[in-house]
TrEMBL record:
InterPro entries: Metallo-depent_PP-like (IPR029052), PhoD-like_MPP (IPR018946), PhoD-like_sf (IPR038607), PhoD_N (IPR032093), Phospholipid_Metab_Enz (IPR052900), TAT_signal (IPR006311). Residues 39-137 form the Phospholipase D N-terminal domain. Residues 151-476 form the PhoD-like phosphatase metallophosphatase domain. Transmembrane segments: none annotated. Residues 1-27 form the signal peptide. It holds the Pfam family PhoD_N. This is Alkaline phosphatase D. Keywords: Signal.
């Protein structure tokens, strides 16, 4: 049976060949569970010969202790991978234990699969069968292939809207999904929320586990995870607003414990490799993922190693501190890793998957300049060094989240010099829900102050891209509303970047 790219249907156990899930014999706990797959399934970090499979068991996602009403013992989770959606051609199968100390999450790192191939996977616990997921491996090294469809998103506040944009993203059948941060928000619920946020502001491990579980209980988010492998990086709200390395937003002697708890819960709830497993307050999240020779994704961490924001954070006018050449947003080690990777790259497209606005964005009308100190504008020397590195590759692309609006930008080698050469393009995705429905403000003042910014849109949504050997096409997908469910998506603008030409061409 040929593989397809259509949605995988979850049918009865018999229709899916449940008996084929007979893995090595294991004792079955005497206590029967209710459905433990309420948080769905996911895959991530694909390579040419493998991918990570993930699930987390929870009978009750909203159990206040964050443990999903699961028994306090390890449970065997059977898993299976096939080349067809009915599992007639199984290529891998096994058993992994979901343990209470990891909130009954499992991470299965597959290897030995065929490059550039679509696979289907599922899990079983006792008589319960998960839905079926679709994933794929990256093309073989040196292979350009016929193209890559990739969608990316950020900033999903559960209380501020419905996750319909994730459903629309899933309907685009991407090969790969990037999530660029603010996957969940730390805040307690508020009166204006359209959906109830369970639990207090997240500070403890139980709090973060509960918050992730509530998000994963959303059917639209689960669907986006189910249809394609993800590459994820966190931003600030996975811990707390605008944290910078060991500096919290407000003085807090308990911040190291809060950071460690947030990192552990993040790992437990994401399809990450064991290399990303946190060690206390440290978590190695920056990494490169190659999609054949078509694209290399350099996934960055702009929170864990940065200097504190300049001039007291926020948007500041004429802040001289931001120009200090010693200031860094990536840390020295990550910067060396990135620049070395760019120098060695032979990819058609080198893509930075990262969190905060990269190109200069003067937010103040007139002669005086006002910049967000939380973005790369607050770390100008860092940006100049990375921009120079992007100028040495064939095609440099920056993907960004954080700001709850769509933007398109041309990145200059030095933004303080108007005649500086272009080195890359930047695509900034709006939020999934954060900020509510949005409006039709054209942001004319900011666009006028920044001629290298070519587009802005204040609606919710995501960006769909198509990479080929000759061009990158980016569709800015928007929804008219998110405070109620069910909106359809439309394309507000499309830009094309041609091979070896770091300029934006609006279609």
């Amino acid at each position: 049976m040929p593989t397809t790219r259509r949605s995988v249907l979850v049918g009865s156990a018999a229709a899916l060949g449940l008996t084929a899930l007979a893995a090595p014999a294991l004792a079955t706990p005497s206590r029967k569970l209710s459905d433990p797959f309420t948080l769905g399934i996911a895959s991530g970090d694909p390579s040419a010969d493998g991918v990570v499979l993930w699930t987390r068991l929870a009978q009750d996602p909203l159990a206040l202790d964050g443990l999903g009403a699961m028994p306090d013992r390890a449970l065997p989770v059977r898993w299976q991978v096939a080349t067809d959606e009915r599992f007639h051609h199984v290529v891998r199968a096994g058993v992994e234990f979901a343990r209470p100390e990891s909130a009954h999450s499992v991470h299965i790192e597959l290897a030995g699969l065929r490059p550039g191939t679509e696979y289907f996977y599922r899990f079983r616990v006792q008589e319960h069968l998960s839905e079926t997921g679709r994933t794929r491996t990256a093309p073989a090294p040196g292979t350009v292939g016929t193209g890559l469809t990739m969608c990316f998103a950020s900033c999903a506040h559960y209380g501020e809207g419905y996750f319909t944009a994730y459903r629309r993203l899933a309907e685009d059948n991407p090969d790969l999904v990037l999530h660029l941060g603010d996957y969940q928000y730390e805040y307690a619920g508020k009166a204006a929320d359209v959906r109830a946020v369970v639990g207090p502001e997240t500070r403890t491990l139980a709090d973060y586990r509960l918050r992730h579980a509530q998000y994963k209980s959303d059917a639209d988010l689960r669907e986006a995870h189910r249809v394609a492998p993800w590459l994820v990086v966190f931003d600030d709200h996975e811990i707390e607003n605008n944290w910078a390395d060991d500096v919290p937003e407000q003085p807090d002697p308990a911040f190291p414990r809060r950071r460690a708890a947030a990192f552990q819960a993040y790992y437990e709830n994401m399809p990450l490799r064991a290399a990303a497993r946190p060690q206390g307050t440290d978590m190695r999240l920056y990494r490169s993922v190659r999609w054949g020779s078509l694209a290399t994704f350099h996934m960055l961490d702009t929170r864990q190693y940065r200097d504190d924001q300049a001039c007291g954070d926020g948007t500041k006018i004429d802040c001289a501190e931001r120009l200090n050449p010693a200031r860094t947003i990536t840390g020295a080690e990550q910067e060396r890793w990135l620049l070395d990777g760019l120098r060695a790259s032979r990819a058609r497209w080198d893509v930075l998957g990262q969190q905060v606005f990269f190109a200069q964005r003067d937010l103040t009308a007139g002669e005086r300049q006002g910049f967000s100190m939380d973005a790369w504008d607050g770390y100008q020397a860092s940006r100049d060094r990375v921009a120079a590195g992007l100028g040495g590759v064939r095609n440099g692309v920056v993907l960004t989240g954080d700001v709850h609006r769509h933007w398109a930008a041309e990145v200059k080698e030095r933004h303080d010099r108007p005649d500086s050469r272009g080195v890359a393009t930047e695509f900034v995705t709006t939020s999934i829900t954060s900020g509510g429905d949005g409006n039709d403000d054209a942001n004319a003042t900011v666009l006028a102050e920044n001629p290298h910014l070519k587009f802005s849109k204040n609606r919710r949504g995501y960006i769909r891209t198509r990479f080929t050997a000759d061009e990158l096409r980016a569709d800015y997908r928007v929804l008219p509303y998110v405070r109620t469910a069910g909106a359809q998506a439309e394309t507000a603008a499309t830009f094309v970047v041609e091979d070896r030409d770091p300029t934006l061409h609006r279609v």
